Amino acid sequence: MMRVLIAVLAFASASTYAAPPAGAAACSGCHAASATVASPVPRLVGREAADIVKAMDEFRAGKRPATVMDRIAKGFTDDETRAIAAWYAGQR
């Protein structure tokens, strides 16, 4: 059953999520949803899922400079990261 869920998450359009996946709401505390909000923290809405996953992997591995994201990234599994990235990529 878990493999089916992973396959669905990997290939499903992010817009099919009725609500954000677990953990996604935590991102909005720093990552503004609106392009009109001035912030040094990059927007996640509409960003390519692969870019978000890559950044999270780099934060987790200590390969990307961070203030808190290195610690935050370690709190998400690969599956959670992919689901969150897919959801944000599908938002406009």
Explain the overall architecture:
This protein is mainly alpha-helical and 92 residues long. The protein is 49% helix and 0% strand. Mean pLDDT is 83; it is low at 2-15. The protein has one domain (2-90): Cytochrome c-like domain (Cytochrome Bc1 Complex, Chain D, domain 2, Orthogonal Bundle).
What is the CA-atom radius of gyration, in angstroms? 13 Å
Count helical runs.
5
* The CATH superfamily title: Cytochrome c-like domain
Shape: globular
Number of separate strands: 0
How many domains would you count in the coordinates?
1
The profile of the biggest β sheet is:
none
From the 3D structure, determine the CATH topology: Cytochrome Bc1 Complex, Chain D, domain 2
Low-confidence stretches: 2-15
Separation of the first and last Cα atoms: 31 Å
Name the CATH architecture: Orthogonal Bundle
Structural class by secondary-structure content:
mainly alpha
User: What is the CATH top level name?
Assistant: Mainly Alpha
Mean pLDDT: 83
Strand content: under 5%
Helix percent band: 40-55%
Q: N-to-C SSE series?
A: HHHHH
For this entry, give a set of tags.
globular; Cytochrome Bc1 Complex, Chain D, domain 2; mainly alpha; disordered N terminus; 92 residues; 5 helices; single chain
Give a concise summary:
By secondary structure, the protein is mainly α. The chain has five helices and no strands. It has one domain (2-90): Cytochrome Bc1 Complex, Chain D, domain 2 (Orthogonal Bundle).
Topology:
Blueprint: H1 2-11, H2 24-27, H3 49-61, H4 69-73, H5 78-90
Helix pairs in contact: 3-5
